[in-house]
Design a protein that fits this description.
45 strands; 716 residues; 7 helices; five-stranded antiparallel β-sheet; mainly beta
Length: 716
């Protein structure tokens, strides 16, 4: 779509050797409280004189560098205060996309976080949870409906909220662990977690007292006891990693490792599953330094990614955590910050494998990230298969704390990774496209998503940093880009956040490069590979992805004509662009399969059957019976001008004459009769058809030529 206006368009992106089909539709709608489906919002083109070059440069736009984007103009959905009260401190938040959270069968979004560091307990302000969902076709902030006053206010949380039906109600509940990213655990000095039980129309909040100081950087859920009920684990940077065992009624019982604890120094993130396939549940922890009976900070072993077993003694009720084995070393080394691990069967092996997300170190600030794929052989032996499972990933990005797995239309779960990019470029979102159950993830769309995130800031007038991008679907399965950013009127004004939405389209389909080639060959089998490549080259541009060589192919350009369409006539090849004129009253419905060709020689079937022009019949004019030469019927006396005989391709004679008489019966120079389709001027004509064998009159009509408008149906 043009940045100047929003139109419907489709694009195909080839990243490395892969084609991604992105269906992009127009969108828009009013801002403020909700995003609707009305249209007409223009894309803010970088050349727009409203913005000077300095302003555009601040948001990463170079005037004239990009002409089109496959998404509608970002539209404001809502503004809100991320805190319980006003603060000028930057907020650290996370967008969570959850399907059917509110029981409407479509995607909802939770936004939650905490105050950023550095901070002190004296200046700490609690944070608010916000809920967005679809209502009456609009994406709205529905927090006031789903939370009673004040129940959405929490101390703060890191990006690890869990969404699970804990009590088999058929509704999705929400578990929130607390974190301030420092040694501050709230006014009581002891940590809490919060369970939000879904009643179907509202979340009921209950507080879980953890009974210890827990720096809750990571959280996971699993059926730890194989009972069919989901439990939870909250990590700690210390000895108090906490198990929350489901009471199977309405809450949890907390356990910390009071027995043997090989996880003494804690962990950044944890995953729990039956990795050994032995009917029990094991743990995999990251940034873990302790081993068997070793409480030294440097720990032991070859990797900071480690597997542990666990047990709760039925007599003493004490939890023990025991080291089992080391897993492959993280991609960025043992000194890196491996802030997230998830168990995920990424290659349809049937085994619980792992995906590890890393950055260079715990100090932060370096714009670098890595994703590691660890394949489980079914017996708990893990192999690093990143090189075969990930293609084109741009490591010059801030990593995601919440990967979004989403079916973009091909039946496979692709992964959206979006980090809070504080570098000022907002270039840390990539779509990792999954094309088969076992195949790799291929990175794409980084530049497009950067445009979207940056444009939202440009519209809001905020600094171009810090917001993630996700995809949310509506009831019609249309895809929308969504981002939440923060802004201040000035340095002393309180922080506010705004959510922006942008329609992408009904589906994001994936195919292979060969399939795009085959699409052209199927339509024009006679084309050689070189000719097909010429079509691809002439219908592409290149800014879709930073993942190696990338092309953007537009299917409308791929299959539509290149250059002018032309038809073969008795006088030679005639471009349709030069074809004007028409014959009023003549039924041309039989001309619905006329063949034309483009500048590359590709043939198209055109429908001329709808080109009938309706004009005044000659009998409505004031006519004079002026004698003429070479007349064949009385009708020709109605024409003040000469007539000629023209033969069609079947050999039938057509008498064609013209005049240029006005309402005062004053004639000008007569028009020279030409073949059909070549009339350069409107006027009055007589059409007479005679059988070439016996001269019998077949058809005659006095007509008025107005204009010729072909209707092109492409391709058939």
């Amino acid at each position: 779509m043009k940045k100047q206006c929003v139109i419907r368009r489709t694009a195909i992106a080839i990243a490395v050797s892969t084609v991604f089909l992105l269906t992009a539709c127009g969108g828009g709608g009013g801002g403020g409280g909700a995003y609707g489906s009305s249209s007409g919002n223009p894309y803010i083109i970088p050349d727009n004189p409203y913005y000077n070059s300095g302003t555009l440069a601040n948001y990463g736009f170079t005037p004239g560098a990009r002409d089109t984007v496959p998404y509608a103009t970002p539209t404001q959905v809502s503004t809100f205060n991320p805190y319980a009260s006003d603060s000028t401190k930057t907020a650290v938040s996370q967008q969570y996309i959850v399907n059917d959270l509110t029981g409407n069968g479509v995607d909802s979004m939770i936004i939650a976080g905490r105050m950023s560091q550095p901070a002190t307990s004296s200046e700490w302000v609690n944070s608010s949870i916000q809920l967005f969902t679809w209502k009456n076709g609009s994406f709205v902030n529905d927090t006031a409906t789903w939370f009673t006053t004040g129940s959405n206010l929490i101390l703060g949380t890191d990006p690890n909220i869990q969404f699970v039906d804990f009590f088999k109600s058929g509704k999705t509940d929400m578990l929130v662990s607390s974190s301030t990213d420092m040694n501050y655990y709230g006014p009581t000095g002891s940590s809490q977690a919060w369970l939000f039980t879904n009643t179907g129309s509202q979340f009921t909040r209950s507080t879980i007292e953890l009974g210890a100081q827990v720096w809750g950087h990571g959280t996971t859920t699993a059926d730890l006891t194989k009972s069919g009920w989901m439990d939870a684990i909250i990590t700690d940077y210390g000895p108090n990693t906490t198990f929350l065992m489901n009471n199977r009624v309405n809450g949890f019982t907390p356990y910390q490792a009071k027995g043997n604890n090989d996880l003494f120094w804690g962990t950044s993130s944890i995953a729990a599953a039956d990795f050994l396939n032995n009917g029990s549940t094991q743990l995999v922890a990251t940034d873990s330094r302790a081993c068997v009976g070793d409480t030294g900070w440097n720990g032991c072993g070859s990797s900071t990614t480690k597997m542990y077993t666990w047990a709760i003694d039925p007599t003493t009720n004490k939890l023990s955590i025991n080291w089992a084995k080391d897993l492959p070393t993280p991609i960025l080394g043992n000194s890196s910050h491996n802030y997230l691990v998830i168990n995920y069967d990424f290659n349809a092996s049937g085994n619980q494998s792992l995906i590890l997300f890393s950055s260079p170190g715990t100090s932060g600030g370096v714009k670098q990230s890595a994703i590691q794929f660890l394949q489980n052989d079914g017996s708990g032996n893990f192999t690093d298969v990143t090189t075969t499972m990930l293609t084109g990933y741009n490591t010059n990005t801030h990593g995601t704390y919440r990967p979004q797995f989403i079916d973009l239309g091909n039946g496979f779960k692709s992964m959206i990774v979006s980090g809070s990019d504080w570098s000022g470029t907002n270039s840390s979102t990539q779509f990792l496209i999954k094309q088969s159950a076992t195949g790799p993830y291929v990175a794409a769309f980084q530049n497009i998503i950067t445009d979207f995130a940056s444009q939202a800031h440009l519209i809001a007038g905020g600094s171009n940093r810090g917001n993630q991008v996700a995809v949310v679907k509506d009831a019609s399965n249309n895809l929308y880009l969504v981002t939440t950013l923060q802004y201040q009127s000035d340095a002393t004004s309180p922080v506010r956040m705004a959510t922006y939405l942008s329609l992408v389209g009904a589906n994001l389909n994936t195919t292979t490069a060969q399939a795009a080639f085959n699409a052209v060959k199927a339509t024009w089998p006679w084309m050689s590979p070189a000719q097909v490549n010429q079509v691809l080259a002439q219908t592409s541009s290149s800014y879709m992805t930073d993942a190696g060589t990338g092309l953007v192919l537009n299917p409308e350009k791929l299959l539509n004509p290149v250059g002018s369409l032309s038809i073969a006539t008795k006088s030679g090849v005639m471009p349709l662009s030069g074809l004007t004129g028409g014959i009023s009253g003549v039924n041309m419905s039989g001309l619905n399969q006329m063949q034309a060709f483009d500048s590359l020689g590709r043939n198209y079937s055109l429908n001329f059957g709808t080109t009938n022009s309706v004009g005044p019949n000659g009998f409505t004019f004031n006519t004079a019976h002026i004698d003429q030469h070479n007349l064949t019927s009385h009708t020709e006396y109605m024409l003040s001008g000469s007539t000629n005989t023209v033969y069609n391709q079947q050999g039938m004679a057509m008498r064609l004459g013209s005049e240029n008489r006005n309402q005062y019966i004053i004639t000008g120079l007569p028009l020279t009769p030409k073949e059909f389709g070549e009339q350069s001027r409107p006027g009055m004509y007589i059409l007479v058809l005679r059988d070439p064998h016996n001269g019998v009159l077949v058809f005659q009509k006095f007509i008025n030529v107005v204009r010729f408008l072909p209707d092109c149906s492409l391709p058939v």
